[in-house]
């Protein structure tokens, strides 16, 4: 089990990849961007990016309007 930080919250997870964490938290719907430890990560790489103890993940949802 790893302790990580997602959008300012400390969580414990048994998931192995960032994509699984983002999916479990319901943050993967619509348009979104993911930053890991201060670096923007392409969505195509999230399924291969392994969770590391203390990792800091920020997920931002795009909101449209006019």
TrEMBL record:
<protein>
    <submittedName>
        <fullName>Sulfur carrier protein ThiS</fullName>
    </submittedName>
</protein>
<dbReference type="InterPro" id="IPR003749">
    <property type="entry name" value="ThiS/MoaD-like"/>
</dbReference>
<dbReference type="InterPro" id="IPR010035">
    <property type="entry name" value="Thi_S"/>
</dbReference>
<dbReference type="Pfam" id="PF02597">
    <property type="entry name" value="ThiS"/>
</dbReference>
<dbReference type="InterPro" id="IPR012675">
    <property type="entry name" value="Beta-grasp_dom_sf"/>
</dbReference>
<dbReference type="InterPro" id="IPR016155">
    <property type="entry name" value="Mopterin_synth/thiamin_S_b"/>
</dbReference>
């Amino acid at each position: 089990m790893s302790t990580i930080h997602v959008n300012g919250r400390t969580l414990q997870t048994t998931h192995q990849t960032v994509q699984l964490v983002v999916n479990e938290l319901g943050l993967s719907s619509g348009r979104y961007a993911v930053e890991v430890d201060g670096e923007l990560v392409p969505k195509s790489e999230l399924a291969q990016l392994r969770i590391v103890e203390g990792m800091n993940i920020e997920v931002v949802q795009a909101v449209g309007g006019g």
